[in-house]
Design brief:
Blueprint: H1 4-9, H2 20-25, H3 44-49, E1 51-53, H4 59-79, H5 82-87, H6 112-128, H7 130-141, H8 143-164, H9 167-171, H10 176-203, E2 211-214, E3 220-223, H11 225-257, H12 260-271, H13 273-280, H14 295-305, H15 314-322, H16 348-364, H17 367-375, H18 380-385, E4 388-389, H19 401-423, H20 430-458, E5 474-477, H21 482-506, H22 512-532, H23 542-586
């Protein structure tokens, strides 16, 4: 009979590409000292009593994170100056768009509503195209090749963007056409990239079963792959924000003091780091080959499970579809030789994986409202800063408080906050974190609404503060915006990072890009919803804009928790029950 150790550790599905000894040695040496080749798995009592710690992050994951850092530098380094490029007119006497120390950079002069509309469209496009990237990767090319093609497409878009920022093109009023084409091309490359880079980084860690190790102090702990996955995505997000931070700060000053041609060219140069790292590290990456499209088969499975559960009463249909036993009649083990369809070539486990993937997608359906609050960071909050006293700072430099906060807080959450919760037995599950993300996002919008209210009270232009030119702006110091950016950053740790982790953890192996793209697609829906609020994105309605966003985030956060509280309880129970049952079955 196969032992528990052989069944779990020697299974090809769960065995990482390193030896048992290197598995124990892969733990951070300052933290753990396993002390040998033997692998010990937790029993039921240990599952409930021992502290859980993360494993070490593989080097392949760091290489992929560097690619993401360069891509995010280029994305945010250009995106951060779009608002001024579109909204503000070319400063008097300037050919490059630079505004100088006491002026505002600008080029096209199309106004705040046009700026909000175009940047919202760009966000929408960037998060629709991941669906295409997921299909191509899962069906034809695999994640690595799709990422390489995406990098090539995005670079072409960068070239067009640089052309739109050339001083002669701006002077002649011909920047709009190459700029819009650049947005479309870059958005396509970004979408193909985003659908696959997040699953690829998590796939570098192959261990899927928890085991016991000892710390240097002799404490027995459980090395938990779930906690490790959280760590991987925390630091992946840290790299994202290091790229965003350096790109935003350097490009806002480039725009203000040199011109848009420089703030579009430098990110394009940094972007060239992506193909270099991809090629140099190609033999170090763990790559999942394409397995063909399973979307049609998953839909066929769902349709088979739904047989006999439709009803003219919509509420009864809903109860049937959400009942615990919805998938039971679709499991291969429940079929006979006569009733089993020819297309049912999978096992019960795959049915369970599809069920989990669909559950994750239903959780993501709430995200568009969350992203509405986050998207204020890319346009309206930048415009708000220009209505206050900036004391020589570029108005769009304040948006860097978001990545700065993330760079500071992500290690603190990983090293102090989350471990402290685990030590005290607090189960701050993924779904609880997402709920907390909604609430902190609502707080950020409340802060922005209060600031806007006082801008209208103190601005010489009253409720048309955007019409005031420097130095005739509100005397309020621009740094009072800080609270909104810090709260948005905290909400990202709770909602955005956890969403990436949840998408990867719940997706079937051959649908990971697809489920990840479904997560990103929620941001596209949010951008489409954002277009409906463009009418509020201008004076004198901006207090209403932020207030509505805050109320929506709080209300939906409450409804979200009410709707998934049973799922949260079930998932928390399953985590420990699965470990215990594996130990019991193995023995």
């Amino acid at each position: 009979m196969t032992s528990f150790k052989e069944a779990i550790f020697d299974s090809p599905e769960n065995n990482p590409p390193y030896s048992r000894h290197s598995l124990s040695d892969s733990i951070d040496k300052h933290e753990l000292d396993d002390g040998g080749d033997s692998v010990e798995y937790p029993n039921e009592d240990e599952v409930g009593s021992l502290r859980r710690v993360p494993d070490a992050v593989p080097w392949g994951a760091y290489l992929i994170a560097i690619v993401e850092l360069a891509e995010r530098f280029s994305f945010y380094g250009t995106n951060v100056v779009f608002t001024n490029f579109i909204q503000r007119p070319l400063p008097r006497g300037s050919h490059t768009g630079a505004g100088g120390l006491h002026g505002q950079a600008g080029a096209l002069g199309k106004g705040q509503r046009a700026s909000t509309g175009l940047t919202t469209f760009y966000q929408f496009w960037c998060y629709v195209t991941p669906l295409l990237g997921a299909y191509i990767a899962d069906t034809h090319w695999g994640r690595y090749k799709t990422i390489c093609v995406a990098v090539g497409i995005a670079f072409l878009g960068h070239v067009l963007l640089v052309i739109s920022g050339i001083p002669a093109i701006i002077d002649e009023g011909n920047s709009m056409a190459p700029f819009i084409i650049a947005l479309i091309v870059m958005g396509l490359g970004t979408g193909l990239f985003k659908a696959n880079i997040s699953p690829l980084v998590a796939e570098q860690y192959q261990q899927r079963k928890p085991y016991i190790a000892r710390t240097a102090r002799g404490e027995r702990v459980i090395v938990d792959p779930t906690v490790t996955l959280t760590r991987i995505y925390m630091y992946f997000y840290l790299f994202i924000n290091l790229g965003a931070l350096t790109g935003k700060i350097s490009m806002t000053y480039s725009e203000k003091f040199v011109g848009f041609y420089l703030s579009f060219t430098l990110p394009s140069v940094v972007f060239l780091l992506c193909p270099i790292v991809l090629i140099v590290g190609r033999n170090r990456y763990i790559q999942s080959p394409p397995t063909g499209s399973v979307l049609a088969q998953a839909f066929r499975l769902w349709r088979y499970a739904a047989r006999g559960k439709w009803n003219v009463n919509p509420m009864k249909t809903y109860r049937n579809f959400t009942a615990e036993g919805f998938w039971e009649n679709a499991k291969p083990s429940q079929q006979t030789l006569e009733t089993k369809p020819e297309w049912m070539t999978f096992d019960d486990q795959w049915v369970h994986e599809v069920r989990q993937g669909l559950k994750a997608c239903t959780v993501f359906c709430w995200y568009p409202i969350y992203w509405l609050t986050y998207n204020q960071l890319n346009n309206n909050l930048v415009s708000q800063a220009a209505e206050m006293s900036t004391h020589g700072f570029p108005n769009d430099v304040l948006s860097n408080l978001d990545p700065i906060t993330l760079v500071i807080l992500i290690p603190l959450f990983d090293i102090l906050f989350y471990p402290a919760l685990r030590r005290f037995g607090v189960n701050f599950s993924a779904l609880k974190k997402i709920t907390a993300g909604f609430m902190t996002g609502a707080c950020a919008m409340t802060w922005a609404a209060v600031v806007q209210h006082y801008i209208y009270k103190t601005s010489p232009c009253g409720t048309h503060a955007a019409d005031c030119e420097p130095p005739n702006v509100s005397p309020l110091n621009v740094w009072i915006q800080s609270g909104a950016y810090v709260l948005i950053a905290i909400s990202e740790i709770f909602a955005s990072i956890t969403g990436l982790e949840y998408a990867f953890a719940k997706a079937p192996k051959n649908m990971r890009s697809l489920v990840m793209s479904a997560f990103f697609f929620m941001s596209a829906i949010s951008s489409a919803l954002g277009e409906a609020f463009v009418s509020l994105s201008g004076d004198p309605l901006l207090v209403w804009n932020y207030g509505v966003m805050g109320v929506l985030a709080f209300t939906v956060g409450c409804i979200f928790w009410w709707s998934i509280r049973d799922l949260d309880r079930q998932e928390c129970t399953e985590i420990f029950a699965n470990i215990a049952s594996e130990k019991r079955d193995g023995n």
